[in-house]
Design brief:
Blueprint: E1 3-5, E2 10-12, E3 15-22, H1 26-36, E4 43-44, E5 47-51, H2 55-60, E6 64-65, H3 68-78
């Protein structure tokens, strides 16, 4: 299982956030997030929003550190990218 995380540089709600993604399936991503104790409400379309204070936890658990640009590239290459405001494609579960 490989999941990826970008640096916590995205501002929101008075915090900085990272994006946690899979290049295989949403099922893999949910399994990893569940293992970290990340609530499902942190899932947004095609990624989990991870607050800066949990970044190191995700990396220790095995998330691979990549750039924000690489996160988007990985999602597109896997066919898992869901853009805001567009109809969601059927998620790949496995």
């Amino acid at each position: 299982m490989t999941v990826y995380i970008d640096p916590p540089t995205w501002p929101g709600h008075g915090r900085l956030w990272s994006h946690l993604v899979s290049d295989v399936s949403y099922a893999e991503l949910h399994l990893f997030a569940d293992g970290l104790g990340v609530p499902r409400r942190a899932f947004e379309r095609d990624h989990y929003d991870i607050p800066r204070h949990r970044y190191a936890d995700a990396v220790r658990a095995g998330a691979v550190e990549v750039s924000s640009r690489e996160v988007v590239r990985l999602l597109h290459a896997a066919g898992l990218r869901r853009r805001k405001g567009t109809a969601a494609a059927q998620p790949r579960s496995a």
